[in-house]
Write a structure and sequence with these properties.
It contains five helices and 18 strands. A hairpin with a 2-residue loop joins strand 14 and strand 15. With about 280 residues, it is an alpha/beta fold. The protein has a seven-stranded mixed beta sheet with strand order 3-4-5-6-9-10-11. The chain has a seven-stranded mixed beta sheet with strand order 12-13-14-15-16-17-18.
C-alpha cells in the first residue's frame, strides 16, 4: 500500500483517489468574494501607482530643507509638489498620443496658465484638477476666455503664502513673421519662489532682452521649437542670460535637444533632458 497525501488506495486494484471538493458555506463564500474584491482593488491601486510613477520626477531642496518635486508630464505641462501644496503648470489632458492621468492626481491648489494656445489652455484638464480651493492664475486673455481667474500682467507680483510668491514676466516672439504667434505684452512667463527656491517657467518665448534682468534662478524651463519659440541656438543664448543652476529644455516637440548639455557645460549650467516633447 502506498500513501499519497491523505488518500489511501491499493496499488493492485489501481483505484484512483476520490477528489475531495471544498464545501462552500455562506460564510466561506463571503470570505472568498472579499479576497477577490481585495485582490482587484490591489491591482487597480498598482495600476494607478504605475501610471503616476511613469512620469519623471526631479527633487530639489529649499533653503529651509523643504522638498520640491517637479513631475515632467508632457510638453509644457508639469506638476509641482511643495510642502503639501499642489501646483499645476499649463495642464493639458491629451497631446498627440499621450494622455495625462489627471484624474488620479490630487485636486490642485494652484493652476498657472501662460497663454491661450491649445497646448497650454485645456478646460478638460482644468476641470479634473479643480477643487473647492483651487486658484487659477493667468493672463487677461485666458481669464476672458474662461470667465474667471486671477489676472497677472507682465511685471505683476503676487504673494500667495508666506513662503510662496509668483512674478509674471514677458514671453513673446521677436523673429520677423513670428510675432503674431505670441505678441509682446499678451502672454506670461512665471517665476515661482518657494521658500527661496526660484523656478523660472519661460512660457512660449524667444531669447528676449528682458531675460538678462532675471536673476538668481535655481531652475529654468526654456522652450525650444521653431517657429513658435526658440531654436537650440536661441535657447543656449537665453540660458547664458538667465544663468540657472539647473536647466530643463521643454516644449520641444520634435526638436533634438540632446546636444544642449554639452554646449552649456563650460557655463556651469546643469542641463536635464526630460520627456517634455
Amino acid at each position: 500500500m502506498e500513501v499519497i497525501g491523505h488518500c489511501y488506495f491499493h496499488k493492485q486494484k489501481k483505484k484512483k483517489p476520490i477528489p475531495i471538493l471544498p464545501i462552500f458555506t455562506a460564510s466561506n463564500k463571503t470570505n472568498c468574494m472579499k479576497r477577490i474584491i481585495t485582490g482587484l482593488l490591489a491591482l487597480l491601486g498598482l495600476a494607478a501607482c504605475s501610471q503616476q510613477s511613469s512620469y519623471e520626477v526631479d527633487s530639489f531642496t529649499t533653503q529651509n530643507g523643504k522638498t520640491v518635486k517637479i513631475h515632467a508630464l508632457v510638453h509644457s505641462s508639469m506638476r509641482i509638489e511643495y510642502d503639501g501644496t499642489e501646483i499645476e503648470i499649463d495642464p493639458v489632458l491629451k497631446l498627440g498620443e499621450k494622455t495625462i492621468d489627471y484624474a488620479s492626481m490630487p485636486k490642485t491648489d494652484y493652476i498657472f496658465i501662460t497663454h491661450e494656445h491649445f497646448d497650454h489652455l485645456d478646460t478638460a484638464a482644468i476641470k479634473l484638477l479643480t477643487g473647492d480651493n483651487t486658484q487659477l492664475i493667468t493672463n487677461q486673455r485666458c481669464a476672458d476666455m474662461l470667465g474667471y481667474g486671477t489676472v497677472m500682467a507682465n511685471g505683476d507680483v503676487l504673494q500667495l503664502a508666506d513662503d510662496f510668491s509668483v512674478e509674471a514676466v514677458p514671453a513673446y516672439n521677436t523673429t520677423e513673421g513670428h510675432q503674431n504667434f505670441h505678441p509682446k505684452g499678451r502672454d506670461n512667463g512665471f517665476i515661482l519662489t518657494l521658500d527661496g527656491l526660484r523656478i523660472y517657467i519661460a512660457g512660449d518665448t524667444e531669447d528676449i532682452p528682458e531675460m538678462a534682468g532675471i536673476k538668481d534662478v535655481d531652475i529654468a524651463f526654456l522652450p525650444c521649437n521653431q517657429p513658435y519659440t526658440m531654436t537650440v541656438e536661441q535657447l543656449v543664448n537665453a540660458a547664458r542670460m538667465v544663468k540657472p543652476k539647473v536647466l530643463f529644455p521643454y516644449h520641444y516637440g520634435q526638436t533634438d535637444v540632446n546636444g544642449i548639455p554639452s554646449q552649456l557645460e563650460a557655463d556651469g549650467i546643469e542641463v536635464r533632458v526630460r520627456h517634455y516633447e
